[in-house]
Amino acid sequence: MRKIREVLRLKFDAGLSVRKIAASLQISSGSAGNYLHRFNACGLTWPTPMSDAELERLLFPPAPTVPSDQRPIPDWAWVHTELRRPGVTLALLWQEYRLSHPQGFQYSWFCEHYRLWAAKVDVAMRQEHRAGEKLFVDYAGQTVPVIDRQTGEIRQAQVFVAVLGASSYTFAEATWSQTLPDWLGSHARCLAFLGAAPQILVPDNLRSGVSKAHRYEPDINPSYRDLAEHYGIAVVPARARKPKDKAKVEVGVQVVERWILAALRNRQFFSLGELNTAIALLLDRLNHKPFKKLPGSRRSAFEAIDQPALQALPEQPYVYAEWKKVRVHIDYHVEVDGHFYSVPYQLVKHQLEVRLTAQTVECFHANQRVASHRRSPHKGRHTTQTEHMPKSHREHAEWTPQRLIRWAEQTGPNTAGVIAYILERRIHPQHGFRACLGILRLSKQHGEARLEAACQRALALGACSYKSLESILRQGLERLPLAQQNLPLLPDEHTNLRGPGYYH
Length: 504
Hints:
CATH architecture of the largest domain: 2-Layer Sandwich
Distance between the termini: 103 Å
Shape: elongated
Largest sheet: 6 strands, mixed
Number of domains: 4
CATH class of the largest domain: Alpha Beta
CATH superfamily of the largest domain: Ribonuclease H-like superfamily/Ribonuclease H
Helix content: 40-55%
């Protein structure tokens, strides 16, 4: 008894590990661990006021006088179900068993016989599935033919299957393919079916889920990662060529094929909706079907075990999004489905990630959003935000023919005539914006009166260009009188003065 109390002292007072305690007292690690386990199973606290004799009787009770064949056998199915609840251990369940049956079996017998029973229930049972922890997802190997009523074409529908780890509660639906939109859509509908979300998703290494398989650090598809982040779920793919990592869904697929797809083998379906209606009816029957060796059904186990432990769904529904990698063109635009969207000009020639939804286009650089646009269906066109442009381009983009003419009219009719003359002789008025801006800015250096006089002289000479006006002002030629015959009359409706309405 001396060493048992010493084990307890070294553990709780000195804080030593079991290995160090065993080395200090020169006993086996198994013996030291057994003493501590018995002490914890009895629900005692240290230090204890009990005498050595009392402690010994409690930790090592005498064998009951009741013969083994007359002792109550634990309800192993109940034990198996309770172990899936968070924090429940065999030691706790044995303690509850002994409280109800003081003449019952000891802890070692309890553990040994439970494991023997569990091995008979599921020979491949190697994983402990905690309540609300894992949702296993995969596609069935079988497909279901769907006939087009008009053409008679037969398409093979894929069957998505999801199984909760603790309760084996099952979801199944048919989709046209295993591509990313169908894959993510099935996940969203599955979580809506459950009414809540698990902590972990365990998919196969399907391309839609895992971009690059790896034993330790698999690359998750960005869109799949998007969905997981939306629902607050971690994605832990099964290891390649390790079917036991997703044994739950492998069995679930087998059950779906046996109880749903086999039952539909002789029926004809003419739409995907019709097929899913039939699957939903049989799925409800499957989830309510009693277990063979366990109490209850998948539905009752889900309500008792998984459902209370699942996390609530987000308020906002999931929006499907695709991710693409693009490179910024020299004109600070990226091409997405034939349309060009602007990004900050500093990112020219950089590679960006683009997140596409039905309504938006978002551009990311180094995981930071740098641009956001409303998605456009027009191919070959540009969507440009002013703040993405360099300063010189920004100033240029802010001008229109109407605005230039209105500004010129503030200086005088001759200035407006020169601006209109330049704009109407360009195939595209934008080509003359730079010259017009240069002419209008000459007023800052020479004054509006001199600019108006210079424009009058330029119109008379037919020299309506920035260089001509700059030369006239630099040399002061606008002060010199023109010959009367060279002075054209400016009627109220001059051919060069079409007004701002011409460009609307």
